[in-house]
Amino acid sequence: MQRFIVCIAFLAAMVFLAGCASVAPAPSTEPVTHQLQGSTDAEGTGIFAVGTLAPLGSFEWKIAPSYTRLATVRHNAARALKQHRLTFADAVDVLDATDRARAALDAAVVADSKKDSKGAEREAAAGAAAIVEAESILNGAN
Amino acid sequence: MTTQQAREMAAALIRAAEQAEANGQAEINLISSLQAADDVARAELLSAISEAAGK
Q: What is the pLDDT of residues A112-142, one digit of tens each?
């Protein structure tokens, strides 16, 4: 029985590691779209992450880093503006670029829910490009 | 993803989990949680812009 449990644990670990390995590493300045390429076969693994409704390796998990980057850029821009490290005009530009990014990411999620994987990746790419644009404005100011 | 992105995502997930538990929920919706976190960040940026515009 103990061996059986160890085997199951080992298999679960292997599947989890395989899921991690399918995400290509990308430097923070690269569009997140690179991580989304070749992701359409990840659905239906049947494995659910503890505490979330999203299956590991699903499109949701692949686009999640873009959402976190987006929120981080906005937070950093707000802080930089308050500390006078970012001009008013640049802050408005960051807001504009991040709003475009958010709209594209949301559109990607909708497209994925409609099984439109190409549309989802196209929108995710547009979102990632807009995030890079916002980061460039922010980094140029620092 | 980069280690920094992993940290940011982990932090966002922990916040979402804490909020879900505070609301008596046992699960979180990944995308909805991250969208909510971005909504907060957008409001923060908008507030800073409004404040700067008023000066």
A: 999 999 999 999 999 999 999 999 999 986 6
Quick: pLDDT tens for A82-109.
999 999 999 999 999 999 999 999 999 9
- Do B45 and A98 count as a contact with CB atoms less than 8 A apart? yes
> Is the sign of the CA dihedral A135, A62, A100, B50 positive or negative?
negative
User: Could you tell me if A62 and B9 are in contact, meaning their C-beta atoms sit under 8 angstroms apart?
Assistant: no
Contact: B41, A52; criterion CB under 8 Å:
no
Which residues of chain A lie closer than 8 angstroms to B35, CB-CB?
67, 106
Q: pTM, whole model, 2 decimals?
A: 0.68
How far B2 CA sits from the closest chain A CA (Å)? Answer: 6
